[in-house]
Structure formats: C-alpha cells, structure tokens
Amino acid sequence: MSNASLQEQLQAVASQLSDKLVKTAASGSKKPTARKAFPKEGPASKVSQSHSGQARLERPAAPSTKKPKPKWLDYVHYGVELLRAYFPKAFKPVSGVVPLKKGIKQDLVKQLSTLENVVMEDKACMVKSLSYYVNTLAYHKSVVTGATRIDLAGHAAGLVTAEEATYSVERLEAKLQAKKTSTPPLPTRPVEASS
Which of 23, 91, 148, 186 has the CA that lies 20 to 30 A from 163? Predict the structure, then answer.
C-alpha cells in the first residue's frame, strides 16, 4: 500500500468524521445526565415524601465552578477504549503504557480497513484518538531512551532513540507547564491586622 493511498484513506475517514460532527452539532442532541445523590443532610437540604411514602433527601445542586468537559474529550476517550478493545496488546491502561512503533497510524488504518465488523464511524474515531493517546502524560513518561517500541500485535518494533526521548521530555514539560498555568489560583482571604 502506498503512502498516497494511505493518505487518501485517512482523508476520507477524517472527512466522514467531520461531516458527522457537523450534523451532530447542528441537531443539538444532548445525552441525558445522571442525577447525583447527596448522602449528607445539610442546611440547604430538605426532606420530602416519595410516592411510596418513604422520606427522601433532596438537596439543590451547588453551582459548579468547574468548566464542563468538552464533547471532543468524551469522543477521544471512547476512541481510546475502542483501541484497547481491538488492540489490547498495544494500547494498555495508563499504568502499562509503552511506546508505539513509528508509523503506527498507517498500520492502524491498514488493519482497520480489514475489519468488516467495525462501523466506519468507530474506525474514524480510533484513528483520531490515536493522536490523543500518544500525547498523554503517561505516554510521554514511557518514551525513554532504549525503551522497546511495540506494534499493534504487541511485538517489539524498534527502540526509542535519545533524540526521541528528549523530544518527549520537552513535550511532557510543556504539558505540565500548560496544566500549571491553566489552573486558576485558589482565592485567598485578606489577612486581618491585629492590634
């Protein structure tokens, strides 16, 4: 398979994916969210009777100070789970992440093209999620000089060079720095002067 045909396949998958995302965004569909239970009774809680006559604790939800999780994050997490399901020897949980073979994306596209029981949207999701997976903190921590790279079947496929390890350390430090600066500082109370 030539690089041109692989690139055409990747572009086709990406265009199908973007068409689907545009349609989903246009329809404005939302998934139902789970309701949280509040086990502790506090000053804002109130007790009400359920249909069966049993007492039930109700507590209004506190306004969230956290930013809602973006939809693309759910999408890539789903893709990573698919990768783990179809290629468990290559895509491991966070504690077992190992460096992947160079050119793994082309191998993934080629392998996915042979799987007829996987829908095109899931194939596209897996290809897109690969870049997320290799840019996680756990992945960058695993890329050290001399570490064995693996292919989709989990077989050894080369070693990490010193240059690649250095690049990964730089990426890791940049991610950690960005994470530090994106976290808002905690509010401080003014110090009262003592007389």
Answer: 91
* Residue partners of 47: CB distance under 8 A and separation at least 6: 41, 55, 56, 57, 58
Encode pLDDT of 116-129 as tens digits: 888 888 888 899 88
| Tokens matching residue 136 | 């996680």
Query: Which residue reads 């093209």 in tokens?
Result: 113
Structure tokens at 103: 């050119």
For residue 165, which of 106, 105, 112, 99 has the smallest C-alpha distance?
99
Check: pTM over 0.85? Answer yes or no: no
Q: Are 123 and 166 in contact (CB under 8 A)?
A: no
- Residue 58 has which token pair? 């109700």
69-86 tens-digit pLDDT: 778 888 889 889 999 999
**CA separation for the pair 172, 129 (Å, rounded):** 18
Rg, Å, the chain Cα set: 24
